[in-house]
Amino acid sequence: GPVDAIYHAAKHPYTRQLLASTVKLTHHVEGRLPAVALSPQAPQPILSVRNLGKIYGWHGKANTLRAVDDASFDLYPGENLGIVGESGSGKTTLGRLILRTVEPTSGSISYRGRDGGEIDVTKLTKRELRTFHREVRLVFQDPFASLNPRMTVKEVIGDPLVVNGLAKGKALEDRVAELMRLVGLDPMGMERYPHAFSGGQRQRIGIARALALDPRIIIADEATSALDVSIRSQILDLLLDIRQRLNLSFIFISHDISVVRYFCDRVAVMHRGKIVELGEAEQICTAPEEAYTKSLISAVPNPDPRDKRMLHRHRFVAPANI
């Protein structure tokens, strides 16, 4: 039928469900309060990034690229922090710098461990990084390419446990079954291979793998961008539920403003390697202050055919010295 009739007066239950999944991500969720009240009584950060930078290229200004430029922020226990920006803004590089899968050029990353002690991640040896990587895990963007097609689901999810010598035999199988149930999968399928699962199910497998070592922080790099809108909504709700049950903190990297608004407590906006604005998710998405953020928010398509956002675009013109 006509677009307006489908959007505002859908008749079929599936159509209404699909539209509800879309509209759900464009509105603030009632009752979902931020996990951390950022007040003078707020807990100490679990992760503090200060003046972090990464330069690619040779010596000399003409041949270098500042992929991340003087980035600073804090992540609090139980908080979901979103990192947003256009393609090439440095979001993924920032996540890799925190994990040190890419070595930073400058700056520091302070992590507060379970015992309350602080460590500088930039100074850890490779052996010490293995311990750090038990507590800070990554969920990849592509649920198809991030799983080894020659490994069963039991092998995929259990691999971190085997590598770290934490479980084997019956104990490994029990732990994998527990993780599969946690992410809403039937443990009876653990002997199957990834190709037998849908995209949403594969992403759940990737999440289960990230949770295998009982981490405290999960870095989700575009973890829902390869999924359709209804599955995306399910995965976000799953992550929110797991966050609450396990007291996790998330760094959620995305270019999808609606997803970030739905999932995150605070948002950092990146442009050309710099964090240009940082604040509460609702404030950033409804009343941004920086010109680049206004441009980014106004570029998000509005699903409502009666409100064509392209008529109200905010154009951003970068300063000449950038």
What fold name goes in the CATH topology slot?
Answer: Rossmann fold
Q: What is the CA-CA span between the terminal residues?
A: 48 Å
- Beta-strand percent range: 15-25%
Q: Quickly give the CATH architecture.
A: 3-Layer(aba) Sandwich
Q: Helical content, roughly?
A: 25-40%
> CATH class, anyone?
Alpha Beta
Question: Which residues form runs of ≥5 with pLDDT under 50?
Answer: 29-40
**What's the total number of strands?**
10
CATH superfamily: P-loop containing nucleotide triphosphate hydrolases
- For the report, how would you describe the main beta sheet? 6 strands, mixed
Shape, principal axes of CA atoms: globular
Task: State mean pLDDT (0 to 100 scale).
Answer: 85
Order of strands across the main sheet: 6-7-8-3-9-10
Instruction: Give the C-alpha Rg.
Output: 21 Å
Structural class: alpha/beta
Give a brief description.
The protein is an alpha/beta fold and 322 residues long.
Which helices and strands occur, and which strands form pairs?
Elements: H1 3-8, H2 13-24, E1 47-57, E2 64-75, E3 80-84, H3 91-99, E4 106-112, E5 118-120, H4 126-135, E6 136-139, H5 153-163, H6 169-182, H7 199-211, E7 217-221, H8 229-246, E8 249-254, H9 257-263, E9 266-271, E10 274-280, H10 281-286, H11 291-298
Parallel strand pairs: 3-8, 3-9, 6-7, 7-8
Antiparallel strand pairs: 1-2, 1-4, 4-5, 9-10
Helix pairs in contact: 2-8, 5-6, 5-7, 6-7
